[in-house]
Amino acid sequence: MSTMVGVNYKSQLREELLANTGSLDILEVTTEKLFIQNDDPVLEILMSRLPVSLHGLDLSLGSSNEMPETYCANLAHTLSATSHEWFSDHLSLTAEDGVEVGHLMPMQLSNEDLERTVAKIRAVQAFSDRPFLVENITSYYPIPGSSIPEADFLRMLCEATGCGLLLDVNNLYINASNHHFDPMTYLEQLPLDRIIEVHLAGGSRKFGMMVDTHATDVWREVWELFDQVCRHIRPAAVIIERDSNFGLFSDTLAELDIARGILARHGLRKPLALTVAAA
Q1: 17-43, pLDDT tens digit by residue?
Q2: Residue 268: which pLDDT band, with cuts at 50, 70 and 90?
Q3: 273 falls within a domain
Q4: How far, in Å, CA of 100 to CA of 96, rounded?
Q5: Strands (E), the chain
Q6: Do the domain assignments include residue 279?
Q7: Are 189 and 125 in contact (CB under 8 A)?
Q8: Which residues of 140-155 are buried (b: 16+ CB within 10 A; e: fewer)?
Q9: N or C, where is the chain less crowded by C-beta within 10 Å?
Q10: CA 82, CA 85: separation in Å to the nearest integer?
């Protein structure tokens, strides 16, 4: 099938999503939302009609602790009970020693962290026969103790575990702008055939830097970077993320059309095969 284009599910938009199901190729659902009993009938309907990408927030690959047993049990049950194309989480830390950080925090990238992260990925891969993807996040300051560039770290994770990648183009643009590097040079360091999903989103300019917010339309510069990226990758899906400050849903539909237009220009609305399998 062609590269799928869709959005992340937000309950505030349930009626709009239900009314426009035909305009979506895929739906991204927060994994942890399904840990508790689903009392959202609209989400159930949408998940029965559309392919689903499960996207986690709290795996905390960067924690030095073992993954909590309760979280692992919930994740394993959700993956077993939910039809999904793949599941993903972030290259980040969200808790340490039982203390919740409250957001996606960049993790230290060292050989020790690589070994620990590889072990965690292999553990969660055993919960599903579908691919597991790791997403790049934004960082606003250097992380002490890091000795491996992020792109190299992601490449080594792929080599060691067979995992795939979720490339967040907005995060890449923000990091490149804030830390003054060439985003395409970063991209060249990744195993491009492992990029299965792409995220597009908007951000804000504040505190003298660019910040990832998912609260605005996709920036023009992010569309331009996405256009460049599409010359080199063949993703199975593109998701436009919006978490707050919702405008007219017609604007979201227009963004989906922009994404489809860019994909078509690069021949990515033709049949594609999902090639990354869980190790």
Answers
A1: 999 999 999 999 999 999 987 789 999
A2: very high
A3: no
A4: 7
A5: 4-8, 26-30, 52-55, 86-90, 93-96, 99-105, 132-135, 164-168, 195-200, 203-206, 209-212, 237-240
A6: no
A7: no
A8: eeebeebebebbebbb
A9: N
A10: 10
